Amino acid sequence: MRLIVDIFATLALGVFFAISSLAEQPESLKRYPPYVEDDGKMHIYFCGTGTPDPGYQYLRHPACVAIRSSGKLFLVDAGEGATARIGQLGLNLAQLDPIFITHWHSDHFGGLAMVINESWFVGADSPINVYGPYGIHRILDGINKSFGPDILFRSANRQGILDPVLAVATPHLVNIAGDQSEVVQDVWHHRDTYVSVFAVHHEPVFPAFGYEIRFGPCKVIITGDTHVFDALEPIERDADLLISEALSYAQYISKLKQTGDNRRARLRYEKANQIIHYHSNTLDIAKMATKAGVKSVALTHLIPPPLLKLTRSALLRECVNSIRAQFG
Asked: Does domain 5-327 have CATH number 3.60.15.10?
């Protein structure tokens, strides 16, 4: 599998922007394997690295990270278009289980229904387990009801092959009591792969979570959507990879100013003021990751969406300048 990423080194901190792969697949990935290969390594696939803005989803689909380790294939978030990217990467949907959702914003679960449904009719032999915050039972109940006719018709046409019972995902409520952002709580494991959850700050979205994935000595942190806060430092401590959403305040405001002084521009300014408080500024990400000794950082969910390599480079410079200003 070949992922396209722009990789930059900044002092001791590796920073790169994760971009969903459009590369031609090698011959070995053009056929689904009958099982999830276990080569003793953890593989991370960026299936969706974009934002809710539909004007840019042709470049990057919304949030979805696929992880393959210990003979399991699982997801963190399932934004719209997740199944298309998973299939494009040659991963077998029938082997997918479980799914972990960070929070209930549509760009993080808009593709969940199709992932559940398509994994079933391509051959899953058990219901998918879905882990997520409060609201998960309501979400999955809605999916089950809306896909009821599809499940009925497909199973009727393929009696003895498609079991409708397997089309209904199993919900698992993830709950961290109170405001315990410093707590990392185990939620799932398979052999030597462990997934833990921690609370993040994306208010008024509540609860919202990030996930820690451990595979042997390897530690990966996926923040979900959040602003940077002090309790993240011990959580991110010595992580091999931090996958973080990122907002460039300077570029966002600069881009808005280019739209002029009309009603539409004023509305966009209002929107900017409404979302800046609950996303992670690139400067804060760089400072926190450096303090925590993070080895590499993947910036996703980029705001504003970079259309050009020049824009991505400007985002990187913000991180570099922040680190140099703080540590010399």
From this structure: yes
